[in-house]
Known about the structure:
The protein is mainly alpha-helical. It has a single domain, classed as lambda repressor-like DNA-binding domains (434 Repressor (Amino-terminal Domain), Orthogonal Bundle), CATH 1.10.260. The protein contains 4 helices and 2 strands, in the order ααααββ. Strands 1-2 form a two-stranded antiparallel sheet. α1 runs parallel beside α4 and α2 (45-52) packs across α3 (56-62). The protein is flat, with a radius of gyration of 19 Å. The relative contact order is 0.12.
Amino acid sequence: MKNTVGSSSGARKSATYRKTFECTLHQIDLALLVREIREDAGLTQAELAKKVGTTQSVIARLEDTEYGGSSLTMLERIATVCGVALKLHAEKKPNFDCEVALV
């Protein structure tokens, strides 16, 4: 006889884990993107910070893969200073797909 009492709880835990894992991957991707944009522009963290009107520690935090507080406004400022086109892509299944150029 199968024990089904714990299986729904396990499925919820598994779904929560997957969601948390995906969110963490997005944070890592965003941090690496900020660093890559900065380095490609030939700027140090301090130089980029000065150009966007913030501090070096803010840029370092944005490049930290464990930081989850990036703002769209700051990302737009960084992209503009570094000469990078920034796009926001949204899709919802089955028939919604939209892309907006931000910078």
